[in-house]
Specification:
Layout (H helix, E strand, L loop, with lengths): L5 H13 L2 E5 L3 H13 L3 E4 L11 E5 L7 H11 L5 E6 L4 H10 L3 E4 L4 H55 L6 E3 L3 E8 L7 E7 L4 E9 L3 H14 L11 E2 L2 E2 L2 H12 L9 E9 L4 E7 L5 E3 L5 E3 L18 E4 L5 E5 L14 H11 L5 H16 L8 E8 L5
């Protein structure tokens, strides 16, 4: 036998450490013993007999092509069927016709060793197979790590989804759910539909004193958890628990809508961020006279609709709260006659088209006019149903919230 060269010894040491097991399959005992000796000199761990395939994983298989009980091709096919990550297969053959090689590759062989062969040819072909085997092991390990990571992430996603669903229920439960009647003269109903599990819209209405009703609709920029948390914080800020602490009062005197918007702007303005702002309509209505004032801060213009279906925009625009330092906000005065309704809504109703095609506001005004004879809650439901038809198969792009206030007629 040819003495080992230093290069071969170094390769053998590296192979023993970096390459795994080799299954040797050959029906000729003499050839098998010779191959085994050569492989062991090269540092490989050698196993014999194909039955071991059922008990142990091998990085490479070295098999003779022609065998009486099971040919090398049949062995290749069997291995390919049984193992998703099959070992690297080298067929030993005296055949060198291209059709034979093609047939071998189609059966699952990766390389061929043509008889007669010498030790160095065997070494380099095994070296190539070792590289492939190492890559396969590395890919398998990375895939297992990825699968575990994805499983962990899926658990977190499911947990977060459950928490978001619970948070959405808590937030929705904190909002007025039914039609409220104040002093038997004013009906108020609000509804919101977030684009995701949690949305950045929030609305509310409550009596400030015996005669004055406060109402607001806020649309925080963005969607999801961050917007929902900011909306919830704003709703808590506007609740009157203590006149001395409430932002709706100053020195125990009720602030006007514009002053409330300015106070919120001072509290929430962040010079380090241009993405933490919100649009808002906040107003106060005298439930006896129907006279009121509101501040429109970047929201779509509210709409006043009469019993005959005529609708007109109210408000004078304005810019969002929290966007400009030391901002001041204008107010709009109005008076609701018996039977008239004031509709306040987020831009999700009038910006249904991502390309912002003109005419969406006019179309929505006409829709509100058709609901004039419907009860307040039914009118709002009609608006949601119709806009859903306008959207058709598209996804809801934005949170959609609406608040309606109606002065009751004397007969009611």
């Amino acid at each position: 036998m040819t003495p080992q060269s230093p290069h071969s010894e170094a390769f053998a040491s590296e192979t023993a450490e970096r390459c795994g097991n080799v299954l040797l399959v050959d029906d000729n005992a003499a050839d098998r013993m010779l191959l085994k000796a050569m492989l062991e000199q090269l540092g490989y761990h050698i196993w014999e007999a194909e039955e071991l395939l059922t008990r142990k994983h091998f990085d490479m298989v070295l098999s003779d092509w022609m065998m009486p009980e099971m040919s090398g091709l049949e062995l290749c096919e069997r291995i390919s069927r049984r193992f998703e990550n099959k070992p690297y297969i080298i067929l030993i053959t005296g055949r060198n016709e291209s059709n034979d090689l093609i047939h071998g590759i189609e059966s699952g062989a990766d390389d061929f060793l043509t008889k007669p062969f010498n030790r160095d040819e065997l070494r380099v072909r095994l070296q190539a197979g070792s590289r492939v085997a190492r890559l396969q092991r590395k890919l398998l390990e990375q895939n297992l790590i990825l699968v575990r990571h994805l499983h962990k992430q899926n658990k977190l996603v499911q947990q977060n989804k459950q928490e978001l669903t619970l948070a959405a229920r808590v937030l929705m439960a904190s909002l007025p759910q039914a039609v409220n009647v104040y002093r038997n003269s004013v009906e108020v109903y609000g509804r919101l539909k977030p684009a995701n599990t949690l949305g950045g819209d929030v609305l509310n209405h409550f009596m400030l004193d015996e005669h004055h009703l406060a109402f607001y609709l806020i649309d925080v920029v963005g969607h999801g958890v961050s917007a929902a948390l900011n909306a919830f914080l704003l709703s808590k800020t506007l609740i009157v628990d203590d006149e001395k602490q409430s932002i709706l009062y100053k020195d125990q005197q009720l602030r006007s809508p514009g002053e409330v918007a300015a106070a919120l702007n001072a509290q929430f303005f962040d010079p380090q961020s241009t993405s933490q702002y919100f649009t808002m309509v906040y107003g106060v209505l005298n439930v006896e006279s129907g006279e009121g004032r509101f501040c429109q801060a970047g929201s779509p213009s509210p709409i006043i609709c009469s019993p005959n279906g005529e609708c007109e925009n109210a408000g004078n625009g304005g810019f969002p709260v929290g966007l400009i330092d030391s901002a001041t906000f204008d107010e709009y005065s109005f008076r609701l006659q018996p039977g008239q309704r004031l509709f306040i809504f987020s831009d999700g109703f009038v910006e249904l088209d991502p390309h912002n095609c003109p005419g969406q506001q006019h179309r929505f005004n006409e829709l509100l006019g058709t609901t004039a004879k419907q009860p307040l809650a039914e009118a709002i439901s009609t608006c949601y149903e119709q806009t859903a038809q306008w959207i058709e198969q598209s996804d809801q792009l934005d949170d959609m919230s609406m608040l309606a206030i109606q002065m009751r007629e004397a007969s009611e």
